């Protein structure tokens, strides 16, 4: 019972965090944070990274912070700080999912050999899958962080695969750097150059198709292997 209550509590907290994004004006909140960071001098980078990490773990939309990094730090340093913060935040969220909820997932799939086989297959091809989903815009960044913690993907493969956020990070920081000031972030005054728009669409489309085909392929392979094992118990 205590175990069930723990997972119900986790689910309620996650749902509340997601729902909060609809009722809290994060644009004003994060814009004010960026204005404050912009006046911190030497400590600005550290404070920015900490705030970005917390936003990532708490499901807060960090796109405005990514754009703001371009205004406050420029393209090179902004991309570097965002990548560091997003990677650390994503890793922390993964560890939360792994050590708080993974045990429950294992119990659920224990009686379903097909799901168990697919989970194992995903673990074996972890780097490729994580990398492709990070390149694709249809997979929510914050949600994936926790979702991967529920799979058998190793922490090392997860971290390496998260390098896939780098192209999008650089592009969005660059777009943010085009803003005249922090107040114009998120407004129509900051237009994404058509070349970058098309680059993001093409990369995202290719990654989406690739991950769909790849995951389908390994899932089918895992199921076929499981069927063969069930048909020939002596193989085990």
Write structural notes for this entry:
The structure is a single chain. By secondary structure, this protein is mainly α. The chain has one domain. Helix content is 78%, strand content 0%. The protein contains eleven helices and no strands. Helix 5 runs antiparallel to helix 10. The protein is globular and about 55 Å long. The relative contact order is 0.12. The mean pLDDT is 74.
Number of strands: 0
The low-confidence runs, each spanning 5 or more residues with pLDDT under 50, are none
Profile the largest sheet: none
Sum up the overall morphology in one term: globular
Transmembrane segments: 6-24, 36-60, 72-97, 158-178, 198-216
Membrane topology: Multi-pass membrane protein
Domain VTT: 60-177
Protein name: TVP38/TMEM64 family membrane protein
């Amino acid at each position: 019972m205590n175990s069930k209550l723990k997972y119900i509590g986790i689910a309620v907290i996650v749902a509340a965090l997601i729902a909060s994004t609809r009722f809290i004006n994060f644009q004003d909140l994060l814009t004010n944070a960026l204005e404050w960071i912009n006046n911190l001098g030497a400590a600005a980078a550290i404070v920015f990274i900490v705030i970005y990490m917390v936003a990532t773990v708490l499901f807060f939309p960090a796109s405005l912070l990514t754009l703001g990094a371009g205004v406050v730090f420029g393209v090179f340093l902004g991309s570097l700080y965002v990548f560091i913060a997003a990677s650390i935040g994503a890793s922390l969220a993964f560890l939360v999912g792994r050590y708080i909820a993974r045990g429950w997932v294992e119990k659920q799939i224990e009686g379903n050999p097909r799901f168990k086989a697919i989970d194992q297959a995903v673990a074996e091809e972890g780097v490729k899958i994580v990398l492709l989903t990070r390149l694709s815009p249809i997979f929510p960044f914050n949600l994936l962080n926790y979702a991967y913690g529920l799979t058998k993907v190793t922490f090392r493969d997860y971290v390496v695969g998260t390098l896939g956020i780098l192209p999008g990070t650089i592009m969005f920081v660059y777009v943010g750097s085009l803003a005249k000031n922090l107040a114009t972030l998120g407004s129509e005054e900051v237009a994404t150059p058509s070349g970058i728009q098309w680059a993001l669409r093409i990369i995202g489309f290719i990654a989406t198709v690739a991950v769909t085909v790849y995951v389908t392929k390994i899932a089918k392979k895992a199921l076929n292997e499981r069927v063969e094992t069930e048909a020939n118990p002596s193989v085990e």
